[in-house]
Amino acid sequence: MKALVLEEFGGPLWLRDLPVPEPGPDEVLVQVRACAPDQFDLTIRDGKFPSARVPIVLGHEIAGIVERIGPGVTGVAPGDRVTSTLYLTCGRCRQCLAGRETLCEDFRGYLGIHTPGGYAEYTVIPSLNLVKLPESISFPQGSILANALGTPFHALTRRARLQPGEHVIVTGAAGGVGLHAVQLARMMGASVLAVDLGPDKLRAARERGADLAIDPSQEDFARAALEWTGGRGVDVVLELVGPATMETSLKAMGKGARMVIVGSHTGSDWTLHTQAVIANEWEILGSRNVTKRELADVVELVAAGRVEPVVTGVHPLEEAEDIHQRLRRQEIIGRVALEP
Ligand SMILES: [Zn+2]
User: Fold this and answer.
1) How far is the CA of 14 from the centre of ligand 1 (A)?
2) Overall pTM surpassing 0.90 (yes/no)
3) Ligand 1 center to residue 45 CA distance, Å?
4) pLDDT tens-digit profile of 299-326?
5) How far from each other are the two terminal CA atoms of the chain, in whole angstroms?
């Protein structure tokens, strides 16, 4: 089969001919029909993910067709259209049994990092990870559901407990996760202030339903948020950027507000003034991807037309290098997908 292989960190992706893998017990061989690249792929390529090893076939956001099932697999059959969660979990620990498998106590890593991924014609995925896709959802759309839609769905519903009528700030609002966060927040009946850089990204956020869109290099978004809420401050901040925006985000938060930290690509250290947390009863929450049950909910929402996966380009697998360069330059609005 055709596969793109990273043979050394910092090096190119090589198009290679590899044997089609065999599914083991509780595993499924999937014919990859779409695989969505994202910033995480760049982190791995750059050798900045300590547990990754080369050679490796990247690609952790996958949609395709079940080709063959291994021993013991139930719930899916050859010919089924499927998408997948990204984490390799045990399915047996306390957290997995409680439906919080992203906190698995026997966490084994990620698809496309710790197993060969979807930058190939076929890949093997644990049956535990698979969710069926209806015909109405295309494979490129299906490939972005677990990350671009699942991540903000988990963050806004389970972590932020966002309510109708609330005001929410989304930082990094025109990225892959951001544009879907804007849509989901609107779907849930909230008003959205989008924060991102440059007129094209602000326009994209407005087109997806943001009430206000602000470039933090041009304008203080905390001041705008206070004006927007009649001085009260917002109820929820969805932080997709990290320390570069968090100080301003805090100034925009009202009493009892929740900040959900989903992404932190601008650094890892941040100073929090504890008195302000106490006085305002702020909740500072982390959020980690999506559970399989929530991914099934996301599939239903998309199938019902309540949210639209934003795929702004579909490219042949051979163009992965070009797409990675565009990702590196932060040029991609929404998400793109590769077709092996
Ligand atoms: Zn587990």
Assistant:
1) 34
2) yes
3) 27
4) 999 999 999 999 999 999 999 999 999 9
5) 10
